[in-house]
Structures are given as structure tokens and as C-alpha cells.
Amino acid sequence: MAALYSTSSCFCGSLGSYPVHKSVKLGHGKVRDSGFYFPHRFQCATPKLHVQAKALSVDGLPEIMDSSLVVCFGEMLIDFVPTISGLSLAEAPAFKKAPGGAPANVAVGIARLGGSSAFIGKVGEDEFGYMLADILKENNVNNEGMRFDPGARTALAFVTLRSDGEREFMFYRNPSADMLLQENELDFDLITKATIFHYGSISLITEPCKSAHIAAAKVAKDAGVVLSYDPNLRLPLWPSAESARKGILSIWDTADIIKVECNA
């Protein structure tokens, strides 16, 4: 799997009343085996954040100390994973389905940790789309920002971890519903209620989702919401490594938090 390289990751926050505030420089990172390079150095100075924490109430049950909302924007899809690990996709005898999509995974993770989260994105008006919406609801993620496209299917991805440790992907999105989200379908009220607006880069690949992504981030920024960016490179989805480089860097400077993955 190709992954972003850097000299350090960029994150700042506070846990409870103990703030962490630091500024780091990202060096000449690259994506392995792709020819993808950052053209120059970046300074990433991030603001202080207040991260939700849990405490025990008088009855011994978890209690949320802060109701800060994290709104996650982007793709949600069905992953098909081999029933036997360590095989290539061609070698796998069978597959099992699982919910996927990096922004949706973040929303579910936050909710499972006791936080408040919501997801904005588009799926097909099909069995898989409704299944994904139900999974979010079952995990206490606000899914009011989801949209259902009657003319496009929910995205599918076949993914495996090979015996050599590399992940292998095969995507079915020609186009899938997540690529067709439009600006006029966005829930701007939900976005402006957020403390953090989190997104990836896959939603930047094609229109109309690209314009919807940019509009959503601008509304969030103008409302004083912290922007959290996971570049999450999936090179097979981009027309070329160069277009991926340009697309990912096109919104780099607007983010307050950037997740940078480092693989040795």
C-alpha cells in the first residue's frame, strides 16, 4: 500500500485539562513506489483543541463531559474482505462484506469512544446504502446528513492484506453514489454546529463531489470550525500520481489538523 511519508505527523489537542500545543514541520514526504512528492516544506501550526473525555456518573455509567460534535465528510462503502487472510484477491476463495470508508470509520470510532459524531456523504438507494445508514445509527452516529442516490450504486471495494504485508485494493465506482454528492444536498446547519469538520481526499477526485467538498469546508472554516484532514491516498482512484499530488495539496493549507502516515 502506498502511504504518505513525512518527518513527523501533525496533531495538536488537549486531553481533559492538560493541553498539548506544538508546531511541526513536514519534510519532503513521498508516497512509496508512486513518484508522489511534496514539492516544498510546510509549516503546520495547529490550534488547541478540547477532546471529549468520559467520566463515571453517580450511577456508575459513562457520562460525556463535553458535547463537542465531530462531523465527518466523505465516502462510505462496502469492503469485501477475503475469508482467508494472507492471500491476493485472485487467490481468495470467498469474501465477507464489511462497512468501510475512512471518514465513516472515524465517525464510528468517535462514537464508540463516547464522543458525539455525525457523517455526511452519499450512498446508493439500494440495500447496501440502507445497511450502511443503519450501521451508523446503531453506532450512535448522526446520519441525518446522508443522501441516497436512486441512479447510482453504493461504492464497493475488494481489499486484502497479502502475505508480504501489502494491502491490495480493487474499487467499483464508475461512478458510485459517493462521487455524485452535490453542494445543494449538503446539511450546512449540521456542519456549522460542529467543533471539528473531518474529511479525506477521495472526495476531491471528481465532480460534483469535489465542489461539494470545497463548499462544505469553506462553510465550516467561516463558522470557526476546526478542519481535520486525512490525505488517505488511494492512488488507483486518481487519474495519475501527479493529479493525486495536486489534488491532495490543493487543500493542504486550509486544514488545522493533518494526519500524516509514516511507514518505514
From TrEMBL:
Keywords: ATP-binding, Kinase, Nucleotide-binding, Transferase. It holds the Pfam family PfkB. GO terms for molecular function: ATP binding; fructokinase activity. Coiled coil: none annotated. The keyword Transferase applies. Residues 69-260 form the Carbohydrate kinase PfkB domain. InterPro entries: Carboh/pur_kinase_PfkB_CS (IPR002173), PfkB_Carbo_kinase (IPR050306), PfkB_dom (IPR011611), Ribokinase-like (IPR029056). The keyword Transferase applies. It comes from the Eukaryota. One of its GO terms (biological process) is fructose metabolic process. One of its GO terms (cellular component) is chloroplast stroma. PROSITE patterns: PFKB_KINASES_1. Belongs to the carbohydrate kinase PfkB family. This is Carbohydrate kinase PfkB domain-containing protein.
